[in-house]
Amino acid sequence: MFRKILLPVEHSSYDAAIVDYVRRLATSCGASVLVIHVADGFAARNLKELGLRESEEMREDREYVEQVARGLSASGVVADCLLAAGDPSVEIRAAAEREGCDLIAMATHGHRFFKDLFYGSVANEVRHQSRVPVLLVLGKPAEPATGSGPA
User: What is the 8-class DSSP label of residue 78?
Assistant: First the structure.
């Protein structure tokens, strides 16, 4: 079925749904997983052009994708990770083709029309422009913490 799945993560609570889904999918079909995060802050977008060093945000992103890959590996899935920099939709599509992935599996926020127009949608751009099939899973935002402290 699938041999190599590209798993874009955004370093947010939306990742939990797609990581769990991909873990189960990869296990059932014996696929490996390449976890990718695309850093898109100023330093990341201009790293090469301006000769900048990796930012603190990029270091945290690298630790995050390594952690996700380790979690997949601990559950028996062959996993590796990649931190890219630049435009997320462009980098995700390029990585899928370059790395020989036969599926891109990513979470979506489930925006509708006006929010997509205002905020844009990486998932939508990848879905429309990728030559590799794309699986979208609706993620869930983090539940607000409920404390037992004084109100």
Answer: -
pLDDT > 70? residue 83: yes
Between CA 28 and CA 26 the distance in angstroms is 5
Q: Is 127 a domain residue?
A: yes
CA distance 79 to 57: 23
The kind and range of the H/E element at 65 are helix 56-74
Looking at the 3D structure of the chain, how many domains does it have? 1
Q: If residue 60 lies in a helix (H) or strand (E), which one and from where to where?
A: helix 56-74
- Between 119 and 64, name the one with better pLDDT: 64
Query: Is 144 part of any domain?
Result: no
pLDDT for 108:
84
Share of the chain above pLDDT 70, in %: 75
Name, of 38-42, 52-56, 63-67, the range with top average pLDDT. Answer: 63-67
CATH number at residue 51: 3.40.50.620
The two beta strands, 4-8 and 32-39, are parallel
